[in-house]
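Folds abound. A case:
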Amino acid sequence: MADHDLSPPPRPEACELCGRAAPLTRHHLIPRSLHGKARYRRRFDRVERLTAILWVCHACHKHLHAVLSERELAEHYRSRGALMAHPQIQTFVAWLSTKPAGFRPKKRAARRR
């Protein structure tokens, strides 16, 4: 398999969730901690596991992982649309999108259990 098949999507100018021009990180839509588990290896091929990525700012990335578990992310939130449909994510992103690029939220959301 050629290396270019495993390339992440190109880095956009702004966060794919809040739209702010801030430093971006890769959010794996199928969390890397689950890539080796048989259940996810059967459901998603290697290319999908490695290239299903959203480029998000640090604040959005922290919030995603504070609100949703790795399994919830892999099972139900494998796309931008699915993430934006989650009420806590939607509310946070709407609020954060009004803040300047350098803004960092002070308090982390409690993980929903």
